[in-house]
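To whoever is on call:

I kicked off a structure prediction for a single chain this morning and the downstream step that reads the tokens threw a length-mismatch warning. I double-checked the sequence; it's 1123 residues and nothing unusual in it as far as I can see. Pasting both halves so you can look.
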Amino acid sequence: MSAPDRSSCYDSDAASENAADTCTRPTPQGLPHPTTTSTTSPLLPLVHSLVISRLRDRLVQSNLQFDPEEISADGLSFLFEMVGGDLGALESVAFASYERATTRHYLLSDQELARLLDLVESTSEDLNPGADEHVTYVRSWALQIEELALLVEAWIEAGIAVPESWSWLVDAFAQEDPNKVIHVRYVGSTRGQTAYNRFIEDRRQRKTGIVGEFLGTLLEVAPRAYEHGKTFEIRNARLPSSASSAFRDLREQVIIAFFGRHNLLNVQAGGIYASYAPDPSDVEFLKNPTSRFFQTFAQWSKPVPQAMIEQLKHWKEYVADLIASNPQSTRSAVLPLPAKTLDTIFGQAIPSQIGGLVPMVHVGLDITFEAYLDGSPFWSGHSRAGHVTRIFAQRHAAYELGRDDFELDVSAMPFVDVFPWPCKADLDLGLAQLTMYLGVVLPILVVASSHLSFSCAMANWLHPLGIRTDAEFFSHVGKVKRRYLLDSDYLEDETQLEPPGDREVLVIGHVHPGFDKYGAQPQELRRVFDICHAITCFVAGVVVEKSHLLAQGRPDGRADRTAVINEVMKTLDSSSRFSDLEQKRDQWVAEYQLWEVEHRAQYRPRMGTAVASRVRKAGARRRVSNVELAWGDVGSAERRRQLVRVWKLQNPEYFLCLERPVTWEKWEQWGGAVAKGNSYFATALVQAGRQRLVAQGQHPLRSVLLAFTPDDATDESWMADSVAVQRALSAWSRKALAHLPTDHWSSKKQRARTLKRGIIFLDRLEGEVAEFNFSNRKCEILLRRHDADVDDDFTFRLRISPSFAPRAQGERRILHFLPGGVGLEDENGNFLQRDGFTPEEGIFRARDAVLGHRGDVFARIFAAERAALAPAAPARTATATSTSTNTLPATTTATQLLMPPTGEPPVTSTTRKQKRADAREQVISPGDGVWLLKQWVDWRCGFEKPITFNTLDPSDARLSADLRESSIATSFVRFLDQEPYASHPWKQRWLDWCNDMKLKGKNIVANLELFRLIQCRTGRVNFRAGGMIDYRIITIFPQQVGASARPAAPPTSPSLLVSGPRSFVPATTSRPSRTTLAPASRSDSAVAGPGPSTEASRRARVAGNVAPTKRSRSPSPFEESSP
């Protein structure tokens, strides 16, 4: 149903006054079509012929299937509404208008295009359409040629392919008419919301993809055009909720083809694969004969036992705990996990079983932003990846069952993501929850539906380096691989070199459903999708049959996993049908790779050469930074343990120089000889390079020696003479040292040149000239600060809008650290103000940076600068009220908000064993999070006899008074409420955990193990009214462990703590241990606004800042207070 204000009759002044001139036409698929202009107009035949022929040609070029009846005058009548009306009576005018719109629409103004297609601008006042109504829109940005040239230049620099029409326009008009206006347009569609709301949503959230790149660049090079972008709905193209998916796709594809995809910002032909239909020959091959997976699964499947459901509930709690305990890595600091989403993650992961075994599990990559917020399941088809996967799965189910109306049974395909949160920053967290799930379910077949998940599967779920490149990925996709479900416990077991046989699993890799979503969606790629699903259904059918067969006659009704896998592989090896599928897979993959070589440069704009190079370099740096260094002395037990662990990882980068096949004996001999502290990877890389040169009969230093070849040498045989080689190396050394100071190549000078590069790190940044950095179309202020306490330099990148940067030679910006953020002052003393920010927040809110990536770095810099200002004048406390959904309190003072953590955070139950062991051996400093817990334990428990607590929630009124009183939370919270601990930076973390003992009580237990000997056992409370609660009973013994067991100062009573702003630090303790800081970045975009220019106003805004002078530093907030 169309909205009331979307009348199908145009309402222009030139509209026909005769009601008889309009009629209603039937349309394909029985959909009602809007009222249209009479087809008796003599203008229509010529316009029809022009538009229809062009549309058909373009749809064929895009490999799109369509019915000729749909691309006809009747099917496309919504494009011809205005012919004979607003376009006037002249035939040449109508024809010329459609000619320009279909070839050079960028030269048409929005008003001209609106008259042609009856567009209406969408605004915030529009009424929302029906829940599932389909709205097609056109977005338009008006750019001058000069602005378009800047955008083209920025994209070329970033390695993003530029549309040919843009380059042609810049070349044609840059010199002749630089002020000419060009319209960049994008065609899209949405459901259940107005085009305007979708436009605002994309501007706020869409940071990736071609539209995200365009909006980001446009904001920087042409902010005026960015702000004045408009969205128009094609009035008569709206479809009701009853329209099929194929018809919705076709509507969008037709409009994109009308303008010409090469002339639009769009890089897709439109739709979401729904219009893809295989060739008849392909259908015959895929249908005959088919698998029997869906039939046999429906016949034999049973629910999994309740014990597995309970284990999956623990996995659900583990996922929730990971998200809550890692707010930066999971983005839960900004986007808390909705309860509905957690239920969806759990619900879609529950499998069914056959013969006591789970036949198949699908592993995806990451949850979409929309699915995370609204809790929609993957198989619902609301996301693009889910929609595409469901379409292909339903098609193959229909092939098997011989009917088209099959409803997919999602219980046959339980689904889990590597990243069930909207961030992919920490793969270790994702693998931790995934391996826990797979360890509970133990499926026979795992379908890995992305490059990363398949790469992890190929590495036995231990690391992401099982598959390296796209080319290598496509050589494995669709093939059945035998791998193992391994986890960290297996890695730490020194007694077991080989993987356990009962953890073996079959893995099939699929191309990610969203792969090439910014490309041309070629027929060749869709064939690869089809053949992968065909192979998966066939293998899954064999798994179901063997599981059912081998479970017959067994007392427990459960088939043996190893026997099932062996039988499945034997069946596949002897199956002629599976052999045909493999041959077809090889053929279709080869055809796609050939297409990719021929067309990728034209059809893949997102990965230009510069972008691809940066991605590869970042990956190489990440791998090098994560490699193992040799532990322990050669021949030591510690080295042996590490060799076993690295061997289990099976990372091929460590085995570069070993002779094939690589065996444990070869690795043990080579790895055991690497010098302590050296990198296995770097050592192997050097040796492999030398081995390759030697194998080719060349000298290992050939590249150096060639420049110093003796005059009488005719070939490279002189390199075999050691005397000649030594002379060449001496010549190289003399040349390297010529005209340089004697200490130029010293290690100290080389390190300074490499790390510093002439960069100056100041002890104070307040009042200094801001240092700007412009790279990759970003504008950043570099905060470089030296901290004398730890003798280290810290850098924080503050991303801002380019409008705040100096625009002319001689301009400068002065840094000021305001109570609520960072401010800038120009050379005339005027403060720059960002819209929507208070005067005490300047251009960058401090609380936003603290929540961002590496926010601890900014918090330290900001707190140090504010503390240094305190002696000059007391800083005015600004009350910041937040309405965001982050985990910070809604109202708090700037000082409380920015209290920086001064030590190590407390560990959690998910912290890796090695990290916990390291933390146990570290001396606990007063700034550390666990220090508060240790103070409470030493004060409450003493060192004489054990004391018992529980992890029950004391706020539960059903519990007895004794149980509530013996809860850890009861005593610990009272302790934390004492005045001496009020300002400790980690106090709030402990209070949060105590307020959620059901989920976070195990975190407290994990920290207790760092310094005391404890014993845990399980308890249960049964309530008279029904129900029960399981909890943990913790006995804390007097014995200390780790570094705490070594002689130390006696525990500090709360009454003896030093008073003052840093009162949590006792006067008798040493300085807190050094905390490693790393550079950070924080994106921000803003529009500058004028601020007050008076000196009095400047002083009021800085709130106590003093003029910058080179003087000795004030005490840093990292230091301890003294009496």
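Update from on-call: the warning came from a stale cache, not from the record. Cleared it. Sanity check on the structure: Residues 772-901+1091-1102 form one domain.
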